[in-house]
Amino acid sequence: MGQGSVGKTSLVKQLMEGQYNPHEPQTDGLSVRTWGVHVNSKDVRLNIWDFGGQEIYHATHQFFLTKRSLYLLVCNCRTSEDENRIEYWLKLIQSFGGGSPVLIVGNKKDEQPFDINRQALRKKYPNICDIIETSCQTGEGITDLTAKITEEVGKLQDVYNLLPLSWFQVKEQLEALDRDFISYGEYIGICYQNQICEEQSQNQLIDLLHNLGLVLNFRTHDFLQNTNVLNPDWVTQGIYALLSDETLKTQGKGILTTADLNRVLKGDRYPPDRHRYLTELMQEFQLCFELPDCGSAKFLIPGLLPKDEPQATSLEGDTLNFEYHYRILPESVLSRFIVLSHEKIYQGIHWRSGVMLAYREGDEVCNIARIKADPEDKKIFIAINGRETTRRVFLSLIRDTFNKIHHSFADLEVTEWVPVPNYPNHPPLDYQELLGLEAMGEQNYPIGKLRIKVNLRQLLDGYEPIEVRRRYNRGDKDFDFEQRYEDMLDITKRLADRPIINKAEATAMSEGSKFTNHNQGANIGNFVNEANDSQITATGFTQTSGVTTADVLQMIDRLRQTAAQLPQEVQDNLILDIKAVEDEVQKPEDQRSMSRIKQRLTALLTAATIGMGSITGGVSAANTFADEVIELGSKIGIELQLPSSQP
Fold first, then answer.
1. Which of 267, 440, 561, 643 fits a 20 to 30 Å CA distance from 301?
2. What is the distance between the alpha carbons of residues 339 and 323, in angstroms, rounded to a whole number?
3. Distance between CA 334 and CA 302 in Å, rounded?
4. Which of 42-56, 163-177, 604-618 has the highest mean pLDDT?
5. What is the 8-class DSSP label of residue 223?
């Protein structure tokens, strides 16, 4: 394995034949050859899988990277460690090859010594068994490499595992078949012919042959349960022929049609009635998806999309932003995300490193998301606009999809980040760090460079409801992203479905009028960031009432104490609104928004009224709380009235 043009195929020919061709063409996709070696007085046949290094092929390597293998990671001595992407390939091998041993080969040493941090790599990846320098042109190092390969193959336990004679006979019979695939039922028939009648033994044998690269069988995958037993070469040559087709890249812009299948695939080996199997296999491994409502079969291959980002990717209005940062960003992460999310693609907008998605309720588009990758910085950026109450639900759905992709890689190093509110140019904050601080009881996150303290509750509420975070923070190990998404969806539905209780609540909602149609019935506290500041022109309460900031803060503390006497389900909303009032009061007079304070106080009064009318217990405290809210409003020049009990 390794990047393109590092000399993988030349190395194979030197090892097997002692030959060198300075004009060796690049490998398209994958080439498989057999090589006989002598290991500890035994003749062993190695299957050499020579992987093409071009970017488009990387996502397909997951088909064929197996355990029980010896990996040669080939690098170019003339280029840097980063250009060779050594850790990228080591991570890929680790993800799909488990703890299989790895030999790093620095090729073209005749032109320059291999300059890498050997000690650090071997410490981080203990399955690296040696680092050897070679030159295919001069033959230098080839003997040493051959000896090391023989030595490492001799250490593989599977080399010495004796197969039952019946298993060996099935293997020989399958290899002797001059056919590209047989049905799984036919394989079972061959097993019965050789007295292998137990289902467990049949499964173990096909798994062994799959891991050895002699056949391909994907019966463990839901989409391919009733699959055939395949000749690996039939699969690789078919799929790689499609991925390598220049017409698909340039003219088709990644759209694969029935006509393309007939044009690219040779009819004698790939008759039309077998095309569907290749496209199903590509869909199962998230290489493509079928386009709906096209009349005839059409598939989109994200890895073949144009690299140029379309014009129509800007988002209007405020956005909810989230980032993933990777130490190693596998090529396939974003293309697989596009495949898995294809049903939500907005107006067909997608490109090689990004996609626009829509969150809909019925025929209404509630939110639009832009997801784009920066391969150089190893980051993925998510931005979501539209209806505020469903933004975080949409984000949770997107995160759930990414989480599933991340978990398919072993030990993928990925972190989550969120921007500092109102400071988009400041470096983002570690999301898991913020969750941990909140779980420890911290209320604020200080940022010294900005001379501010970020309110954790307010910031995190924009991403996940407090109920969801509390369950997660309790260490519920079974509470995965999918469950978090379902819980968030349920919470949002409950908020949206709750009817308006009374006139006061209706009035509070109407004051956020530009959001009324979208957010009807949602938590009124959510409107704090969308308030219309033109409704109240006073900049400070000291000018009209003589009440000092200290007086107001003292009253706010009293509100908190009273709120603590109310049931927990009421407290959760009150705490956020009280804190919002406090934050607004503490601002300089020229930055203070009286309309936002009024909206928060109205929300508090409404919540207290609901507490009196519909919550068992805490009625007396709710009455007291409502009186204190009205008093606070009066002191700072905001007139509030206790809502009537009738709608």
1. 267
2. 20
3. 9
4. 163-177
5. G
Identify whether the C-beta of residue 409 lies closer than 8 Å to the C-beta of residue 95. yes
Contact criterion met (CB below 8 Å) for 417 and 439:
no
- At 532, list the tokens: 């219309």
- Partners of 131 in the beta sheet? 104
d(CA 156, CA 176): 26
Contacts of 400 (CB under 8 A, 6+ apart): 481, 482, 484, 485
Full-model pTM: 0.69
- Secondary structure class of 518 (helix, strand, coil): helix
Are 610 and 502 spatial neighbours (Cβ–Cβ below 8 Å)? no
Residue type, 309: E
CA–CA separation, 424 vs 418, rounded Å? 10
- List the one residue out of 374, 252, 378 whose CA is nearest residue 304: 252
Largest CA distance in the chain: 99
pLDDT of 559 > 80? The answer is: yes
Maximum average pLDDT range among 45-59, 103-117, 280-294: 103-117
**3-class SS at 45?**
strand
Comparing 565 with 629, the larger pLDDT belongs to: 629
Q: What is the pLDDT of residues 254-265, one digit of tens each?
A: 999 999 999 999
Beta bridge partners of 76: 107
Rounded to a whole number of angstroms, the distance between the first and last alpha carbons of the chain is 70
> What six digits make up the tokens of 104?
């790093």
Cα four-point dihedral sign 358, 361, 365, 366 = negative
Give the Cα separation of 338 and 351 in Å (integer): 10
Helix, strand, coil percentages for the chain (3-state, nearest 5): 50, 15, 35
Contact by Cβ (8 Å): 590, 511: no
Q: What single DSSP character describes residue 304? A: G
Mean pLDDT of 345-352: 95
Who contacts 287 (Cβ-Cβ below 8 Å, separation ≥6)? Answer: 59, 60, 239, 243, 301, 303, 335, 339
Check: CB of residue 8 under 8 Å from CB of residue 57.
no
The reported pLDDT for the residue numbered 535 is 35
Which tokens sit at 141? 């190092």
User: If you ran DSSP here, which 8-state letter would residue 109 be given?
Assistant: T
Rounded-to-integer distance, Cα 44 and Cα 47, Å? 10
Of 122-136, 534-548, 611-625, 630-644, the least confident: 534-548
**Which of 15-24, 62-71, 128-137 shows the lowest mean pLDDT across its residues?**
62-71
Contact between 77 and 106 under an 8 Å Cβ cutoff? The reply is yes
Of 460, 374, 18, nearest to 468 by C-alpha is 460
Q: What is the pLDDT of residues 514-523, one digit of tens each?
A: 333 333 233 3
Length of the chain as a residue count: 647
Query: Which range among 237-241, 418-422, 550-554 has the greatest average pLDDT?
Result: 418-422
| Residue 599 vs residue 153, higher pLDDT | 153
Alpha-carbon radius of gyration of the chain: 32
What are the angstrom distances between the C-alpha of 369 and each of 382, 396, 443? 7, 12, 30
Which residue has tokens 């690996």? Answer: 232
Classify burial at 166, counting beta carbons within 10 Å of its beta carbon; exposed 0-12, middle 13-18, buried 19 or more. Answer: middle
pLDDT in tens, 39-78: 988 888 888 888 877 776 776 776 677 777 899 999 999 9
Give the strands of the sheet with 364-374, arranged side by side: 345-351, 354-361, 364-374, 379-384, 320-326, 414-418, 429-430
Torsion of Cα atoms, 502 then 503 then 506 then 508, to 10°: -110
Burial label, 638 (beta-carbon count in 10 A; 0-12, 13-18, 19+): buried
